[in-house]
């Protein structure tokens, strides 16, 4: 973890020149949040202020500020009887609640998108399907996460409902955080379902698009739940 975080420190110093309007605490928050969401810092990891500050090449004050914000946002927690902050391990209930909300919102997006989607957006989705196949073959988790976000974002944009888009925006980082742990094992089935969603959108079949999206999101939730059960059964941190 620490060698990756050290390289993040180099990025942080570069970003400091590009994002002068941000406080250092805000930039540290972005680095830590991205590292947590993308699985670089695993659930249960102990975030020691002095170690994080050393690796990022900053003082402890912006690290403390960033960790407090991460606690507020639910990515980090203070554990009773233990000193310091630890990366939160999402519970099965948390995951299921988020994906239930996502399934309702995104299935409706798919229904709306089927009536609105342009040929340009359909071409973008088709291109992503090809990139997804290549990322599956390479077992490239980070690229798969990025491609997955792009696919779903195109569908949300095509739905053209700003309220739903804002609601999904609130959930997006948490969805990515939960999904990273199964993205490679889930990839083949996930991209087969993406292809089914694409075909329903191409045919402008709103009901089929909604059903395909609902099944897709709930299957991802089930895969995450099975993974968590396996980890728990092995006696490892949840």
Automatic annotation (TrEMBL):
The keyword Cell cycle does not apply. One of its GO terms (molecular function) is DNA-binding transcription factor activity. Keywords: DNA-binding, Transcription, Transcription regulation. CDD domains: WHTH_GntR. It comes from the Bacteria. Residues 22-90 form the HTH gntR-type domain. Pfam families: FCD, GntR. This is DNA-binding transcriptional regulator, GntR family. Gene3D superfamilies: GntR ligand-binding domain-like, Winged helix-like DNA-binding domain superfamily/Winged helix DNA-binding domain. PANTHER family: TRANSCRIPTIONAL REGULATOR, GNTR FAMILY, UXU OPERON TRANSCRIPTIONAL REGULATOR.
């Amino acid at each position: 973890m620490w060698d990756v975080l050290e390289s993040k420190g180099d990025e942080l110093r570069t970003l400091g020149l590009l994002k002068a309007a941000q406080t250092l605490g805000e930039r540290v928050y972005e680095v830590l949040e991205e590292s947590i969401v993308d699985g670089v810092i695993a659930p249960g990891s102990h975030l020691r202020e002095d170690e994080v500050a050393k690796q990022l090449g900053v003082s402890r004050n912006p690290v403390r500020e960033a960790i407090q914000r991460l606690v507020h946002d639910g990515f980090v927690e203070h554990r009773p009887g233990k000193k310091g902050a630890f990366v939160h391990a999402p519970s099965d209930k948390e995951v299921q609640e988020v994906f239930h909300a996502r399934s309702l919102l995104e299935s409706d997006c798919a229904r709306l998108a089927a009536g609105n989607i342009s040929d340009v957006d359909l071409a973008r989705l088709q291109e992503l399907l090809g990139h997804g196949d290549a990322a599956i073959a390479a077992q490239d988790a980070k690229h798969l996460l990025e491609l997955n976000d792009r696919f779903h974002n195109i569908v949300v944009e095509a739905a053209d409902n700003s309220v739903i888009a804002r609601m999904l925006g609130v959930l997006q980082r948490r969805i990515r955080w939960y999904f990273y742990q199964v993205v490679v094992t889930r990839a083949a089935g996930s991209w087969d379902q993406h292809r089914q969603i694409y075909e329903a959108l191409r045919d402008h079949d709103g009901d089929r698009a909604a059903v395909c999206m609902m099944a897709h999101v709930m299957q991802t939730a089930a895969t995450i739940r099975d993974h968590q059960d396996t980890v728990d059964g092995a006696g490892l941190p949840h």
